[in-house]
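input
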Amino acid sequence: MSEQRNIALVRQLYADFSRGDIPAILSRLAKDVEWNEPPSGPPPFGGTHRGREAVGQFFQHLATTAEVEEFQPRQFLAQGDVVVALGHYRFRARETGQAWETDWAMVWEFRDEEVVRFQILKDSAAEAAALQGR
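output
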């Protein structure tokens, strides 16, 4: 698959996320997808989620725990089957009312137009503090 096609797929995944269309995101994941979140708070905000069902549970928990206030993918870099997206987001913890924001890098790896691996690099300490009300 071409690098430009991979970038287009990542852009579509972000558009789906912005619309809240989680089923569309899950349909683009390989059955054995590996979804990696750095440690930052109570599960599922940290750790590795394996398979579509586990990633779906991650998104359900995210929706009940936090509200997206801003989500801005800014730059896309691709090489082979890997896309790195750079951006910024701001979330608000529903329970504490505290917001956190961070620049981020998201790494997407594809096989046959499906996501087989995802990794995010972000300020997980700010996230944990907001979720825990600190």
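quick obs: The chain is about 35% helix and 45% strand.
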